[in-house]
Specification:
- The two termini are 54 Å apart.
- The chain is built from 27 helices and eleven strands.
- Strands 2-1-7-9-8-11-10 form a seven-stranded mixed sheet. A two-stranded antiparallel ribbon has the order 3-6. A two-stranded antiparallel sheet has the order 4-5.
- 51% of the residues lie in helices and 6% in strands.
- By secondary structure, it is mainly alpha-helical.
- It folds into three domains: 334 residues, no CATH class; 211 residues, no CATH class; 59 residues.
- The protein is globular and about 95 Å long.
- About 1% of the residues have low confidence.
Length: 715
């Protein structure tokens, strides 16, 4: 049996592969936003904003257009579907690559298609690929699509007859390399495949002046989005404008594109050893092929590792050009990428090792950075399966008719179902709504025109989403402790135009006169709340830019009217100074709150415990010392001063606690983001303990049971 390497590509079968993968993703799709960067990117797509460096303009533009399509009722679900579609489209392209590369291995068309499909399916259902394709947490599914498309373009170029018509594929691959870099630098990791194919097929094309000019022209066009869209849109001050890269070729633009904000160390400075960094990658590789399989996970990892390496070896033997290209891409996506990223110890890598402190670890798992290697491995697995079918068929020999011997060996592709079955529980995002519901809960805890001080990504980005996408409580000003160390966040806080509070769309407790339980709220003034017209900072933009990165704390307490601030550290960061300024400029004029997710920051850093009144998941800052007031204000050892009526109303009538209490089949999977789930446990459990200490055990039963249901989701 022989096969023609120049026979038409099986586009229909590739489309079917993509459709099957998309169906899997759709069945497990997140219905709304999620934690980490999901909310930031969905909100950025909605408002045509600029997310964190490197700005990702291609993603923002593509997702914004996609979001206009009436594909789902909730905007977040539409953007999640964008992630699913781009990843599934990439799977379809990987099928084309796998089928083409395995023609030299397995001549029988049907079995070869089965091997290509099975391999690509295993890559598409690898744990990280699947998990990242069911919610738009990052921009990497667009990069997956870009890498697959670039590889397919250069493969098609090599199969075309010589001439200008053939070179259009090569020009397209160069254009896509430039264009995908404006989504994320991950996409340019396909460049080694282009180089291998040019050198191994026809290096003389590089001597064509016309073609070199075309390369330069399309590269400039592809890169232009970074240097045109970002500065223009930044200068229009969208609601999400991280880094504010306004000004063509400005330093701010260069800093965003070069990710200066993250202050990565030089490659020569390894944080853990290189061995540990590669060990961390191996840990993530071990998650991919059956994370739900318990003790069987190691066997699945070994099986798919052997299939992938066997496939690469077979490609090198039977189609050296394809083998070299595959090897170059695998090397780039693993060994070189791990070295380049230079991560700290993984969040759970060598867990329990007392020599590794939290400061030495990444704040979350970083497996998603290697998503392309897991997806591309499906192509190598396809080659391994093709080689296995060929080997079994040849072994059968004359015992089976020639036309059927490879077909008889084809059932071995069933091993590709292992990742599908072994990851289906924890890779799924179906039914998960906690991030959205948490955001609404905490925003509706704030009085109109209040300032809420939050800590980091997971207690801030969902709130951005709720405000900018859902339109929930846009009158609340969000100040992030981590981001207040940057000039651009402080400028945005001062520049922000405060929207009017709309009681008709707010929670019932903020409507005139009564709350959901029919109780009058003392804070609800006659005629409603008055919108402040002055900025939250009295300092000018220039003065805010001049705040020092770090300074020595003043000696002794600082008074703001009757409130006393006692700094708990010898040195203050820019964020500490900004927090002090927010209090100084707004106390008594705007309600000021700290989220319970800030932990003990306002207590230990600012000494504000006697001025903080706990109301559900937030703590309101009082301008005067708080004193117990019968059953209304109670001091509790765990929660400090508690506004009992307000907390009861929030916890019993307002909060969407079902999102925290529903029992996940394997508990909360992403341990680094479990702090938000724990927040519900701490608040409901703390409230129950407070009621018990007052002797009201009957009233404590309901919040106690809620806390217990939340606790059962902890791993």
């Amino acid at each position: 049996m022989t096969t023609d390497h120049r026979s038409p590509p099986p586009y229909m079968w590739a489309a079917l592969t993509g459709a099957i993968v998309l169906a899997i993703y759709y069945a497990t799709l997140a219905p709304t936003t999620a934690f980490w960067d999901t909310s930031e990117y969905i909100a950025a797509a909605k408002v045509l904003g600029i997310p964190h460096p490197p700005g990702n303009p291609l993603f923002t533009l593509m997702a914004h257009v996609w979001g206009l399509l009436p594909l789902a009722a909730e905007y977040a679900a539409r953007i999640n579907l964008f992630a699913a579609f781009t990843s599934a489209a990439g799977a379809g392209l990987w099928f084309l690559v796998a089928e083409r590369w395995t023609r030299a291995i397995l001549p029988a068309r049907g079995p070869r298609f089965a091997a290509a499909f099975a391999g690509v399916l295993s890559g598409a259902t690898a744990w990280t690929v699947w998990n990242q394709s069911t919610v738009n947490e990052k921009v990497y599914t667009v990069s997956l699509l870009s890498i697959a498309l670039i590889v397919w373009c250069v493969v098609r170029w090599a199969d075309e007859p010589e001439g200008d018509r053939r070179d259009r594929w090569l020009v397209a691959s160069v254009y896509l390399l430039a264009l995908t870099s404006t989504n994320h630098q991950m996409g340019i990791l396909a460049a080694p495949v282009v180089a291998v194919y040019i050198l191994a097929t026809d290096w003389r094309v590089l001597l064509k002046p016309k073609l070199l000019l075309a390369f330069a022209a399309v590269a400039v066009v592809g890169l232009s989005i970074n240097y045109v869209y970002l500065p223009i849109r930044a200068g229009q001050y969208p609601a999400i404008n991280e880094g504010e890269p306004e000004g063509f070729f400005s330093q701010a633009l260069m800093d965003v594109l070069n990710r200066v904000q993250y202050a990565k160390p030089p490659l020569s400075q390894r944080i853990p050893s290189v061995i540990d960094q590669y060990g961390n990658y191996w840990q993530y590789w071990g998650w991919q092929w059956g994370r739900d399989l318990g003790p069987m996970r190691a066997l699945a990892t070994g099986l798919f590792t052997a299939l992938g390496l066997g496939g690469l070896w077979t490609l090198l033997r039977r189609d050296r050009r394809a083998g070299l290209a595959a090897g170059a891409l695998l090397l780039t996506l693993t060994v070189i990428l791990v070295y380049y990223l230079n991560f700290k110890f993984g969040y759970s890598y060598r867990a329990g090792d007392p020599a590794i402190t939290n400061q030495m670890r990444e704040v979350r798992e970083r497996d998603y950075f290697f998503i392309a290697s897991f997806a591309f491995s499906g192509v190598l697995i396809a080659a391994g399966l093709a080689a296995l079918i060929r080997g079994i068929g040849d072994w059968l020999g004359d015992r089976v008719p020639d036309a059927r011997r490879y077909l008889a060996a084809t059932p071995v592709v069933a091993v590709a179902l292992l990742p599908l079955l072994g990851n289906r529980v924890t890779a799924s995002r179906a039914h998960e709504t906690l991030a959205r519901d948490f955001a609404i809960d905490i925003l509706e805890s704030i009085e109109p025109y209040g300032i809420l001080i939050t800590a980091g990504d997971n207690d801030t980005f969902p709130l951005w989403f709720a405000q900018e996408v859902l339109g929930v409580r846009r009158d609340v000003t969000l100040a992030n402790l981590s981001l207040m160390n940057t000039d651009w966040h402080l400028r945005q806080l001062r520049r922000r135009e405060l929207p009017d509070f709309d009681p008709a769309t707010a929670a019932s407790i903020w409507r005139p006169a009564t709350d959901a339980a029919g109780e009058t709220l003392d804070e609800n003034p006659v005629g409603g709340w008055v919108r402040p017209t002055d900025p939250v900072f009295q300092l000018s933009l220039g003065q805010l830019d001049s705040l020092p990165e770090i300074s020595q704390a003043p000696e002794g307490p600082r008074m703001i009217d009757s409130l006393v601030i006692q700094f708990g550290e010898e040195y203050l960061t820019k964020s500490d100074i900004a927090t002090f300024l927010l209090i100084r400029d707004n106390l008594g004029r705007r309600p000021i709150y700290f989220s319970w997710s800030d932990g003990g920051y306002p207590d230990t850093m600012l000494g504000l415990t006697p001025y903080l009144l706990s109301q559900g998941m937030v703590r309101k800052l009082s301008p005067t010392l708080i004193a117990p007031d019968g059953d209304r204000i109670v001091f509790d050892q765990g929660m400090g001063f508690v506004d009992v009526p307000r907390t009861r109303i929030l916890l019993e009538n307002l909060y969407r606690k079902d999102a925290a209490t529903w029992q996940r089949p394997r508990g909360w999977v992403d341990e680094p983001s479990m702090s938000i789930l724990q927040l519900y446990y701490l608040v409901y459990g703390g409230y129950a303990d407070m009621l018990k200490s007052q002797g009201d055990t009957a009233a404590a039963m309901a919040p106690d049971s809620i806390a217990e249901l939340v606790r059962r989701n902890f791993r």
